[in-house]
Design brief:
With 131 residues, the chain is mainly alpha-helical. The protein contains four helices and two strands, in the order H-E-H-H-E-H. It has one domain.
Amino acid sequence: MFRSNAFDYINALDKAADAAWLRNDAIANNIANATTPGYKRQDISFESELERALGHRRYLSMDAKVSRLTRLELKPRKITDHENYSYRLDGNNVDIDTENVMLAANQLRYNGLMTSINAEFQNLQTAMRSS
């Protein structure tokens, strides 16, 4: 049986794109609830999960680290941000300007991830043509 690690980076990038998509939903929900009394902003925790999963393997190359990642290690989690913090009297902690900046940054991140996934597939196509 032939074993290949050709899709390791694609799988990791796919999980990162999924997390960015979930973060987009969370930010949109924050914006929609910007005037809801008592609402606490939500975010997605993924980057820290990825760093934790990769950090446990300090002395390996990046290729080796990515090939050892399992899908279970890269699970985005929804978190409530600054749960006890609110600068408003109604208990809501959403700042609409910050959310709009985070939405724009997340859209750029998602587009970059999609570009990277497409580039990985193009690399695979090139490798298949030249073999």
